[in-house]
């Protein structure tokens, strides 16, 4: 079961990140994107105030699965974990966190602007 959940979280979390970064592009997905990216930013900041800045429930759940599979020393960042895994290079956690935060806030601002423009038109 844990193997299935590990694969599920890889696919789901990667898809969520991809949608957060690109969902604003298509007019039909812009409203959904605004909701999803807003929930993501709320998680990072709102839930982050309680659980640690940048908190993501998907990462938390996935790390529980990975620990059950015997993995240890997991970083706080899902993106850092996979960048390290894919590249074979140990990425700087502050650099990855900065890129993720700037990209997320940028996507939120673009989505907000485009959703506003769509309502005005």
Automatic annotation (TrEMBL):
InterPro entries linked to this entry: DUF2784
Regions crossing the membrane: 6-25, 32-53, 89-114
Alphabetic keyword roster: Membrane, Transmembrane, Transmembrane helix
Membrane as UniProt keyword: yes
UniProt protein name: DUF2784 domain-containing protein
Organism name: Gracilimonas sediminicola
């Amino acid at each position: 079961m844990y193997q299935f959940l590990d694969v599920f979280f890889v696919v789901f979390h990667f898809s969520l990140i991809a949608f957060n970064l690109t969902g604003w592009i298509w007019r039909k997905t812009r409203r959904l994107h605004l909701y999803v990216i807003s929930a993501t930013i709320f998680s990072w900041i709102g839930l982050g105030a309680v659980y640690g800045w940048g908190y993501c429930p998907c990462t938390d759940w996935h790390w529980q699965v990975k620990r059950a599979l015997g993995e240890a020393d997991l970083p706080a960042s899902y993106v850092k974990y996979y960048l390290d895994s894919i590249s074979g290079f140990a990425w700087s956690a502050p650099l990855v966190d900065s890129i993720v935060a700037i990209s997320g806030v940028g996507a939120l601002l673009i989505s907000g602007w485009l959703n506003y423009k769509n309502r005005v038109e």
